[in-house]
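Task 17 of the worksheet. Students: predict the tertiary structure of the chain below and write it out as structure tokens. Keep your answer in the requested format; marks are given for formatting as well as content.
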Amino acid sequence: MSSTTAVNPVLRVAPAAPSVAAAHFRASLAFHADVSDVAAALATGGDPGFVVLDSRSTESWDQGHVPGALHLPTALIPEQAEQLLDRSVPVVTYCWGPGCNGATRAALALAELGFQVKEMLGGFEYWVREGFEFETWEGRERRVPDPLTAPAEAADCGC
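Model answer:
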């Protein structure tokens, strides 16, 4: 096969049929929430209809967490979730960021206990990088949004 007829790495495996792709992406949205969507829902001031759960260690929590989030490390979910959470309220889990699967493990543990759950993509890292306020053991902070993760001159990314 010559280089002019070789299939490139992107198309080596053909894209899924549109109906299959739609089902996949619809399902993905049932499992994941975006940092900016979570922030927007929390910013309305009313009941967002979900609770945010930080599944990291106490040391990580103290370093910074989403305001209003509950703290429940993943290892403690089996023994404490029933006392802290209401099964009728969906839970949005997060951990450090995209390089960590702690939020996925926490979501799995909660789902296995019968809770409705989504994972917040980007975790605490992207919460901070997008410029949202966070709490530490010393008080509230906010950093300048990273232009690689949030638009510098707009309220949201428009996606």
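Marker's comment: Residues 55 and 72 are 5 Å apart (CA to CA). The chain has a mean pLDDT of 93.
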